[in-house]
Amino acid sequence: MVPFWVLLYAVLPRSFRPRRSWSIKQIVAVNFTRRIYKVTERAGVTWGTRDPEEACDNRALKETRFEWVDPLPERLRTGIVADGQVPFKRVGVFVWPKDGSEGSIQRKESGIALTSPSDVEARAGNEPLIGIFLHGGGYCHMSAHESSSTSKIPRQLIKDKAFDQIYAVEYRLLQHAPFPAAVQDAAAVYAHIVRQHQRPPTNCKVVLIGDSAGGNLVLALARWIRDEGVLPPPDGLLLLSPSCDPSHAFPESPSSYIPRPHGSTDYLVDTPEPRALLQRTFLGHNPLETMHSPYVSPASMRVLRAYYGDAFAHSVQDLTIEQMDTAARKRLREMTSVPGTPANQPETPFEPSTNGEVNGLKPSPTSLALPQISSPRGLSLFSEFPRACIVLGDAERLEREVMKLVSGMERDGVDVRTIWVEDGVHDVLMMGWWDEQVRAKVWGEVEDWLGENLRP
């Protein structure tokens, strides 16, 4: 088919291309990738994965170093991460860059380069910016290894000196353990970084980074941190084409299934039965209604109706990124169909306690027993979420659900920056075959956001 596509689009006028701005290389890459995805999704084939319980020899790594992080401490095991059927385990991380600084402690005999928190802080002017990267792949593909295609993201951020360190988390995929295993693993790494770096007199800033399904995991981790109050919140969320409505694979009836938009311009496929099977495997022993939890599908219509009412949900159902202008943001923030966002409380330093409380706040008894989990302290869906930067293409299948996510964040007063990739497909920063000028522009906007909000 590739020669046919090349010949066809070389002859046809640009108006016949899926997007006028696309080159023949982009058209061929999208069409070819879509065909591969359709076959592998129907066949249940996974790729680019590794055993999360297997160590990685640091001598074989060129850009990162591998470390183990202890399981989430028992005193932090509250809320949705506490599941008697899913054990807590140690977590492997690939730390970017491999060599922290000249002051790093070298273990030449094992090929390990260790960087102490003080080294990182000294290099960053006592306030390092640390990223936690959660890779995409639908919870069943790829890994955190530096050779994975998703590693283009932390590689570029480190190359551009946007972060001092990035921890790429080798969380458990659905073939290794069901939900909430991935949240447990991400929480363990977050707690590790807090323990290592967020202590007087210096503190680091932490940004959660995720692409596609990794963005879904970032949202779940941020929600758990907010709901339970046992750890300080992150300083920002960097969401790259985040998956935020997996419940789309479970319509109320087969006849009510509505395909996601942009089927002719994105490489992601819409195959309801295989996708539903993957999501059911992801849930494992949890009831099917868990798919409509805000921890799993925060942008589903059922969740939006439960938190904001029918009027709000209907108004954002078909919202596009092109329509999200200043007037639309103002309208979302002023809608009166839901309770107002609670006033921000004054910031207080994080002080662990031995009695299960943090700054006088008891952990909430959240669970997955109900489809829509009520937030503690009467919070709305995204109240008290950290500032966020969301990258989204207007040619990708997830456009509508991501815009529902943006709408909910806007409604609850979250500081949201959306980066619009015109004619962009899903997860464009991971696509090495995409227009390099477009990708460079997006990287520039991402790093501008980091510089304006998180770099002194």
Radius of gyration: 22 Å
The span between the termini is 52 Å
Number of helices: 12
The residue fraction in helices comes out at 25-40%
CATH superfamily of the largest domain: Alpha/Beta hydrolase fold, catalytic domain
Arrangement of strands in the largest sheet: 1-2-6-5-7-8-9-10
Q: What name does the CATH topology of the largest domain carry?
A: Rossmann fold
CATH architecture of the largest domain: 3-Layer(aba) Sandwich
Shape category: globular
Q: Order of helices and strands, N to C?
A: HHEEEEHEHEHEHEHHHHEHEH
Indicate the structural class: alpha/beta
Task: State which percent range the strand residues make up.
Answer: 5-15%
* Unreliable runs: 101-114, 338-369
What is the overall pLDDT average?
86
The total of beta strands comes to 10
CATH class of the largest domain: Alpha Beta
Largest sheet: 8 strands, mixed
Instruction: Count the domains.
Output: 2
What does this structure look like?
Pfam families: Abhydrolase_3 (PF07859). Strand 9, helix 11 (399-411) and strand 10 form a beta-alpha-beta unit. The protein has two domains: 1-40, no CATH class; 46-337 and 364-453, 3-Layer(aba) Sandwich (Rossmann fold), CATH 3.40.50.1820. It has helices at 2-11, 24-43, 117-123, 152-159, 181-197, 213-228, 272-283, 301-308, 310-316, 326-334, 399-411, 436-453; strands at 65-69, 91-96, 105-107, 112-114, 129-134, 165-170, 205-211, 236-240, 388-393, 416-421. Helix 5 (181-197) crosses helix 6 and helix 10 packs across helix 11. Residues 101-114 and 338-369 have low confidence and may be disordered. 32% of the residues lie in helices and 12% in strands. It is α/β, with parallel strands linked by helices and 456 residues long.
